Amino acid sequence: xxxxxxxxxxxxxxxxxASPGSSAQPQVHEFVRGSWKEIRQAHAGRPIVVHFWGVxxxxxxxxxxxxxxxxxxxxxxxxxxxxxxxxxxxxxxVSAMLAESGLASAENWxxxxxxxxxxxxxxxxxxxxxxxxxxxxxxxxAIKTIEGSVDPDAVRAWLxxxxxxxx
Length: 167
Known about the structure:
The chain has 6 helices and 6 strands.
């Protein structure tokens, strides 16, 4: 009887942790053809940071917790993450890394097309798929590209420069 009760408790705890409303489990949208246009339209007119990353990317594993910390401290950070790993990742691994990095509350996406070149081309025809890649998109739509690891201080400075000016 004790084993059954313990198994029921463990099962209930796991179900609660995996429930859709749980803050520990990030929502990850499927990034397919047209998703880039959807993201740009949804965030038009305000500064946005779009970070492309992957579970198998060493520098990404280092910088993701730094972005999580930045997201927690800066309420004005509109952050979108896109898992764009060349090695297809399991959704559970993507969700786990986002949760561990403190990025569950970001807007999270994951490439979901066997023809990833098409997705990359929609984002930037010149992009060959190297990650990490960060795009700082200003209120006016101007894009600043950061190839490789992103410095959170550079993102802070960019956000400060994007703040509406008092008239």
